[in-house]
Backbone:
């Protein structure tokens, strides 16, 4: 079945570097013909006689014409990225040269690779499990320190280790149950129920932890929508400029950035805060409570976190309390930020708002306590008991499979509580194992694999 997935007989080729003009481009071949094909275009040396993991300089010649002078890197399978024979041709970066070399290589017998096909082969050859393969795509797309760290950790097998632990727990459980089934006539409980409970509880805890990490994984991978709102003249533009001066993230290549709704992106401690355009609120002359701009309110509700900025000199504690009540009624995750503390002095202001908990006092204009605000923003999205060092789920496919695992485990615990027979418990455990296997790729089907790898870029 595996052979059919990619047609392992053929040799694939693609440009591995970013499209367009660059100093150097890398063209990568993988497959049983990789060495023969390159050799036929590289007269300076017989590549078939060279050791693996060596570099060779020479010309690429096609139809009697030199296309470029290149460096060829040799990786003999299985000690290569895909597990097959791999050759990387580093040529000059002109798109014309890249195209000429690709043409020559395909004429000599290679076929253009589909997106993700190199990594797919690596997976099918057992070089990576599926979570590691997927993290290759994440790694390429990572755009902040935090998303890079989680992708890197996954690629090196962090997540897979936890899943193997989970699998072992479940397999021990089912072994105990099945042992009991073998001796059912004897009416003995081999599988000590207390031990079974312990195993299911341990597995449950592991999974819950992973499932909970998804919220944060999502934040790390995709950033968090953030709205800075408040009455006119509260100081929103001033604050925004202060933040942007220090923390503006490069947005052009952040996946999923919708230009019309996202104004700017801040990178604070590796987390991307996508500032939602709430121009409606900023330009309105009404107070925030009376803004009829439905759309803007909807945007606020979409935000992962809302920074409510108010002028401490103009607002009363009662006003503020009303605003808090309305945020709470709408289930909005908000941060209260009192601005312009420089005018009346911090202590007088703190006295004025002493009844209200959790206000951050800043002066946007003087940059006072703006760092505290950044810290508070990070805390707001990272709250919970998840540590960035832990394994973090960033992939929706893994998340939904883990939820299925959790459901199956619930059935197991319920089953034990209700004294259902061992063979039924074993079925539920097998279901849990099945969904775990889907995550790592031990249980999978062709369509699903094709789908997963099709989301990669070509050349990976
Ligand atoms: P927005 O309407 O909420 O965007 O408010 P702006 O950022 O345009 O600020 C309104 C006015 O308040 C401007 O004149 C700012 O210079 C001023 N302002 C903003 N922050 C502070 C502050 O911390 N202290 C003082 N004294 N003035 C501020």
Residues:
């Amino acid at each position: 079945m595996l052979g059919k997935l990619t047609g392992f007989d053929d040799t694939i080729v693609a440009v591995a570097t970013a499209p367009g003009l660059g100093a150097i481009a890398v063209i990568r071949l993988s497959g049983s013909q990789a060495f023969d094909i390159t050799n036929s275009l590289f007269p300076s040396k017989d590549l078939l006689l060279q050791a693996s993991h060596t570099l060779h300089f020479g010309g690429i010649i096609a139809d009697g014409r030199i296309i470029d002078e290149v460096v060829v890197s040799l990786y003999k399978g299985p000690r290569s990225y895909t597990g097959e024979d791999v050759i990387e041709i580093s040529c000059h970066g002109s798109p014309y040269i890249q195209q000429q070399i690709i043409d020559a290589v395909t004429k000599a017998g290679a076929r253009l690779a589909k997106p993700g096909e190199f990594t797919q082969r690596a997976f099918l050859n057992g070089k990576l499990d599926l979570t590691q393969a997927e993290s290759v795509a994440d790694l390429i797309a990572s755009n902040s320190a935090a998303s890079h760290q989680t992708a890197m950790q996954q690629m090196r097998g962090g997540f897979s280790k936890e899943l193997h632990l989970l699998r072992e727990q479940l397999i021990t459980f089912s072994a105990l149950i099945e042992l009991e089934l073998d001796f059912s006539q004897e009416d003995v409980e081999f599988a000590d129920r207390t031990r079974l409970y312990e195993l299911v509880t341990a597995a449950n805890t592991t999974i819950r932890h992973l499932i909970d990490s998804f919220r944060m994984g999502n934040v790390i991978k995709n950033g968090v929508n953030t709205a800075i709102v408040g009455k006119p003249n509260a100081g929103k533009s001033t604050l925004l400029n202060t933040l942007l001066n220090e923390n503006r993230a490069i947005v052009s290549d952040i996946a999923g950035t919708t230009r019309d709704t996202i104004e700017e992106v801040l990178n604070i401690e590796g987390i991307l805060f996508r500032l939602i355009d709430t121009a409606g609120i900023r330009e309105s002359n009404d107070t925030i409570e009376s803004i009829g701009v439905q759309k803007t309110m909807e945007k606020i509700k979409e935000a992962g976190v809302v920074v409510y900025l108010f002028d401490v000199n103009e607002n009363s504690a009662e006003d503020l309390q009303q605003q808090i009540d309305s945020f709470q009624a709408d289930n909005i995750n908000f941060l209260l930020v009192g601005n312009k503390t420089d005018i009346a002095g911090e202590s007088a202001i703190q006295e004025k708002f002493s009844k209200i908990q959790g206000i951050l006092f800043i002066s946007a204009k003087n940059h006072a306590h703006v760092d505290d605000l950044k810290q508070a923003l990070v805390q707001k999205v990272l709250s919970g008991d998840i540590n960035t060092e832990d394994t973090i789920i960033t992939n929706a496919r893994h998340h939904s499979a883990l939820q299925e695992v959790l459901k199956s485990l619930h059935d197991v615990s319920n089953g034990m509580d209700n004294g259902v027979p061992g063979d039924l418990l074993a079925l539920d455990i097998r279901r849990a194992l099945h969904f775990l296997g889907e995550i790592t790729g031990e249980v999978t089907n062709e369509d699903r694999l094709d789908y997963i790898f099709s989301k990669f870029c070509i050349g990976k």
